[in-house]
Amino acid sequence: MARWTVRRAKRVGTKAGFSVYYMLFLVFIYGPMIAMFILSFQGRRGGTSFPLRGFSLYWWNRLLEPSTVGDLQGALGRSLILALIVMVITAIFATMLAMAFRKRFVGSGVLFYTVMAGLMVPGVLLSLGLATLLRQLGLPPAWWHSGLGVHVVWTLPFGFLVMMAVFNRFDESLEEAARDMGASEWTVFKEVTLPLILPGIVAAGLFGFTLSYDEFARTTLLAGELNTLPLDINAQMTQRIRPTLFALGTASTILSLMMIGLFLLIYTALYRRSH
Amino acid sequence: MNELPQAAPTHHAAHHRGLIGDQPPPPDVAAAARKIRRETGFPVGWLIAPAALWLLLFLVLPLIGIVIFSFWDASAKGMTPDFTFKHYGAFFVVEGFFDPESRNFLTPGVFARTLWSTFRFTFIVMFFCLIIGYPVAYFLAMQVNSFKFQLALFLLAMVPFWTSYLIRAVAWLPMLGRRGLLNTALVNLGILDKPTSFLLYSEFGYTMALVQLYVVLCVGPIFFSLAKIDRAILEAARDMGANSFQVFREIIGPLSLPGVAIGMIFIFVMIMGEFATAVVVYGGKTSTTGTVILNYYAIANYPFAAVNAIMLMVAMMIGVVIILRVVNIRKEL
Q1: Which residues have a Cβ under 8 Å from the Cβ of A199 and sit 6 or more positions away?
Q2: Any idea which of A48-52, B44-48, B65-69, B256-260 has the lowest mean pLDDT?
Q3: Is the Cβ pair A122, B143 closer than 8 Å?
Q4: If we measure between CA atoms, which residue out of A219, A134, A227 comes closest to residue B78?
Q5: Of the given ranges (A10-14, A121-125, A164-168, B8-12), which has the lowest mean pLDDT?
C-alpha cells in the first residue's frame, strides 16, 4: 500500500511540475503580447515602455487619423480582401488536389513535392524571384496579382495537408452507394462528398485566411505601390516607435483572434452536423 | 424432399438459379471493378491543372529565374543577359584570396561568412526551441488525460502561429529595453543593481525573441508523434521494471523522432530566411543572408541578390539533408 502511494504521489508531482512548466511556457509566448496590449493604453505623455503614465485612448484615437499612420485603413482593407481571396483559392485548390491524390496518377510524386516546396522555399527567395522576373518582363508588381500568387503558394501546402488527412479517413463506400443508385459524378460530389469534407475545407480556409493576412516576407517586394497591413506595420517600425504601433498591433491581433474564433465555431458546427 | 421447391426451368444455360426467379449471369467482377475505378471521380487532369499552373507561374518560374539571373551581369538599367561567375566569386572570396602575399590570403568573402553565421545561429535557435518545446508537447500528449482539455490546451499553445509574427516581434520591444519589463524585474529581484542594456539590440534578446516566435512550430509535430504512441507499450515497459528515464530513452524518445525532425525542418527553414526580426529586435545591427538579399535588391544589383538567394537555398538543402540523416522520416513514419 505504501509503495502504491509513493508511486502515485510521484506521478502527481510530475504532473504538477509539467503543469507549472506549461504555465510558464504560456507566459513566455503570450507575455510580450499582453504587455504590448497594456501599453497601448499608455497616457498621452507616456512612452513605449512601462510604467504607465495614466490611462488613455489617445494612441488608439491616433490610429483613426489618416495623417499619422499613412494609409492604414486602405492597407487593412487590402489585407482583408487579399486574405479572403487567398482563403477561397486555397480551399478550392486544396480540395481539388486532395481529390486527385486519392488515385495514383503519373507525375503525382513531382506534384506533391512541388506543392510542399511552397512550404520550404523562404519567402524572401520567392519575393526576389518573382519581383526580378516581373521587372525583366516590364510588369509592375501589385498586391492583387503577384502578391496573391505567392500567398497561395505559401498557404496551399497547409490546406492540402489538411484535405489529405480528411480524405485518408474518408469512407468511399458512401460515394459508391450513391453511384450505384445512378447519381452522376457531380451529384455524388454535391450530395455526399462535399457535406462530409466541409469541416476540412473550413480548416483549410482558416490556414489560407490567417497566413495570408499576416504574411510579410512574401509580400515585401511584390505588393507594388499599395501596401498590405504587415508592410504598413513594418514601414512604421522604421520610423520612431510610438504606442500607436502597439495599439495597431493589438487591434490587428484581436482581429486575427476573432477570425480564428469564428472559423473554429463554423468548424465545430459543421463537424457536429457531418457526424 | 418434396417440400423443397423445384428448380425453375432455365431459359439460358449461363443463367443461374436464385431465390426469386432467374438471375443474370455473374459478371466478370474484376473487370467491372477496374472499369468503375477508372470512371469514378472527376478526371485527374482537371483537378490538378489549375493548382499546377499556379505553382508553375508563382513558384517554379521565379526559382528558375533566380538561377538564370545569378549568371547575368548587373548594369545601370538592371541586368543584362550574360554568363558570368563573377557574382559567385564576389560571394565566396575577397580580393587577394589567391595571393599568398596578401593580408586577405584564403579569407572567405564577407557574404559567405554571413551565410555561415546565419546557419550557425539558426542551429542555436533550433536547439533552444527543441528543449523548450519538447516538454510542452510531452505534457500535452502524455500528462493530460481528458481529450477536450488536451485539445483546448493544444489550441492555446498553437494560436500564436495564426497571428502576425511581425507584431509578436514588435511586442518584444517593451520587454527588452533599458526600462523594459525584464530589466525592471531583474532589478526588483535584486539580480541586477542597475538596468542593463544587453537585452535589446543584442544577440541574447534576438535569440530569445526568435525562440518565442518559432517554438510553436515544433510543439505541433512533436505532439502528434507523441500522441500516436501506444500506451500499452509504455505500460508493458513499466511492468517489466523500467524507470521513467529508461522508458523515455528506449521508447518515447525514438518514437517521437519523426515529429522532432519535422518540427526542426520547419523551424530551420523559417529562420534561415528570416530578416524582419533581425531588423526589429536586433536593430539591424547584424546581417542575415535575408537582409543581404533585400539590401542588394534595393540598390538594384539583382544578380548578386540572386547569388545570395541560391546559396541560401543550397545551405537550406544541406541543413535538411543533415536533419534527415539524423532521423530517417520515411523509415520512422
Answers
A1: A166, A267, A270, A271, A274
A2: A48-52
A3: no
A4: A134
A5: B8-12
CATH homologous superfamily of B110-332 equals MetI-like (1.10.3720.10)
CA gap A219, A131 in Å, rounded: 10
CA dihedral A132, A137, A142, A143 (to 10 degrees): -60
Q: Which three cell numbers stand for residue B254?
A: 525514438
Position B13 scores a pLDDT of 46
For residue range A187-209, what is the model confidence (pLDDT) as tens digits? 999 999 999 999 999 999 999 99
Give the three-class secondary structure for B304.
helix
Among A128, A176, A209, A232, most B C-beta atoms within 10 A, so best to mutate, is: A128
C-alpha cell at B288: 542575415
**Cβ distance of B173 and A135 shorter than 8 Å:** no
As a residue count, chain A comes to: 275
List chain A domain ranges. 71-274
Assign A42 to helix, strand or coil: strand
- Rounded Cα–Cα distance for residues A194 and A58 (Å): 49
* Span A113-140, pLDDT tens digits: 999 999 889 889 999 999 999 998 988 9
Q: How far is A36 from chain B (nearest CA, A)?
A: 5
Report the C-alpha gap between A1 and A250 in whole angstroms: 54
Domain boundaries, chain B: 26-69, 110-332
- Interface contacts (A, B; CB < 8 Å): 245
Question: ipTM of the predicted structure?
Answer: 0.90
Looking up cell 491581433 gives A253
Range A160-183 burial, b when 16+ CB lie within 10 A, else e: bbbbbebbeebeeeebeebbeeeb
Q: Do B66 and A118 touch (CB under 8 A)?
A: no
Q: pLDDT tens digits, residue range B183-233? A: 777 787 877 777 777 677 778 888 888 999 999 999 999 999 999 888 898
Q: For residues B133 and A231, is the Cβ–Cβ distance under 8 A?
A: no
Domain range A71-274, its CATH number among 1.10.3720.10, 3.30.1360.170, 3.50.30.30, 2.70.70.10: 1.10.3720.10
Helices B203-214/B253-272 angle, 10° precision = 120
Does the distance separating the beta carbons of B316 and A230 come in below 8 Å?
no
More confident residue, B62 or B27: B62
Q: What is the pLDDT of residues A211-257, one digit of tens each?
A: 999 999 899 899 888 889 998 888 887 777 788 888 888 988 999 89
Give the chain B residue nearest A151 (alpha carbons): B58
Q: What is the DSSP letter of B3?
A: T
* CB pair distance less than 8 Å for A135 and B78: yes
Q: Name the grid cell of B167.
A: 507584431
Cβ-defined contact of A18 to B135 (cutoff 8 Å): yes
Q: Report how far residue B30's alpha carbon sits from residue B204's, in angstroms, rounded to the nearest whole number.
A: 66
| Residues of B with Cβ-Cβ distance to A176 under 8 angstroms | 36, 40
Contacts of A126 in chain B (CB under 8 A): 58-59, 62-63
